[in-house]
């Protein structure tokens, strides 16, 4: 086994960071993880855990020593403090990459696009965000593209997965730690939305990096994932839970309006409502051509693992399974 490749994952306690660690390990990388709260087991999942803060440049630079890769998967919890911490954290990662010669991998989102780019988002679609969070996301990509370091951006839709705790699916469509008795869809039932299964995202990152020689210095790919409207998502959840009568209802946006003045997370959530008012699909033709296939686990299997992982379904989830 070749373990000479060293990767640093910043934000490894989050859903995408955890899956990036697992996937890179499967692809023969040595993995370090910079987190504020390391697990009790020092080498959990075969990862070297380092206690530190992404806001501290010295912590990031020290953790990145000798790394050929830095996965920047850190985000403020609950949407809080985006305008204060997101760009400084990224700047620390960029400085560390300049010092070590590492490539930066950024899990991208659809927030940096406005309605003028919908419904089909290509890698070169115009970025005219209409929210402050979207503006910051667009600025993150701009800084990476002009930093003089190698960059890989993999843009995804909303996440599902056994470790996807704070997502639209696990906090909006269903209620965690409860059997699914109703599905609440944030848009019109006929509007399709882009979803990404976290274990597949991690595996796709690793497969792209396996072909480092074929990547551009600054390369962007779109992860198509699943494109489902409210009806299709409900049918998939019914199949995954073996509960054919789960009803489909409207997400209670009125409730978020009532509570938003008291909860920053809900205030930020309401600003993202526009993403549910139009069909949004990520064009993955570049990704599929590069990898040679569609790297997506069947939706029923992905949803079953997700529902087990968030406590909505009994059984054991296995986030190590990915499509090949």
TrEMBL record:
<dbReference type="Pfam" id="PF13460">
    <property type="entry name" value="NAD_binding_10"/>
</dbReference>
<feature type="domain" description="NAD(P)-binding">
    <location>
        <begin position="11"/>
        <end position="159"/>
    </location>
</feature>
<dbReference type="InterPro" id="IPR036291">
    <property type="entry name" value="NAD(P)-bd_dom_sf"/>
</dbReference>
<dbReference type="InterPro" id="IPR016040">
    <property type="entry name" value="NAD(P)-bd_dom"/>
</dbReference>
<protein>
    <submittedName>
        <fullName>NAD(P)H-binding protein</fullName>
    </submittedName>
</protein>
<dbReference type="InterPro" id="IPR051783">
    <property type="entry name" value="NAD(P)-dependent_oxidoreduct"/>
</dbReference>
């Amino acid at each position: 086994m070749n373990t000479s490749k060293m990767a640093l994952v910043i934000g490894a306690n989050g859903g995408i960071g955890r899956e990036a660690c697992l996937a890179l390990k499967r692809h023969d990388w040595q993995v370090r993880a910079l987190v504020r709260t390391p697990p009790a087991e020092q080498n959990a999942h075969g990862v070297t855990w380092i206690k530190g803060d992404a806001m501290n440049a010295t912590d990031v630079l020290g953790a990145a020593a000798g790394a050929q890769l830095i996965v920047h998967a850190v985000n403020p919890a609950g949407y809080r403090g985006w305008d204060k911490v997101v760009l400084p954290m990224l700047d620390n990662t960029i400085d560390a990459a300049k010092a070590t010669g590492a490539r930066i991998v950024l899990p991208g989102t659809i927030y940096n696009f406005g309605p003028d780019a919908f419904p089909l988002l290509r890698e070169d679609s115009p970025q005219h965000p209409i929210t402050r969070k979207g503006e910051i996301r667009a600025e993150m990509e701009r800084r990476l593209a002009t930093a003089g370091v190698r960059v890989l951006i993999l843009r995804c839709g909303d996440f599902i997965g056994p470790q996807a705790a704070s997502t639209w699916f696990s906090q909006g469509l269903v209620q965690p730690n409860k059997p699914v008795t109703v599905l609440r869809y944030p848009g019109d039932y006929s509007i399709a939305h882009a979803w990404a299964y976290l274990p597949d995202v991690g595996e796709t990152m690793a497969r792209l990096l396996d072909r480092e020689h074929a990547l551009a210095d600054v390369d962007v790919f779109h992860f198509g994932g699943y494109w489902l409207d409210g009806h299709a998502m409900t049918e998939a959840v019914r199949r995954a839970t073996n509960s054919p009568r789960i009803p489909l209802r409207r997400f209670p946006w009125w409730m978020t309006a009532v509570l938003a003045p008291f909860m920053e997370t809900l205030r930020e959530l309401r600003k993202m409502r526009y993403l549910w008012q139009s069909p949004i699909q990520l064009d993955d033709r570049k990704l599929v051509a590069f990898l040679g296939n569609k790297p997506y686990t069947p939706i029923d299997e992905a949803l079953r693992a997700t529902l087990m992982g968030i406590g909505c379904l009994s059984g054991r989830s296995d986030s190590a399974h990915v499509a090949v």
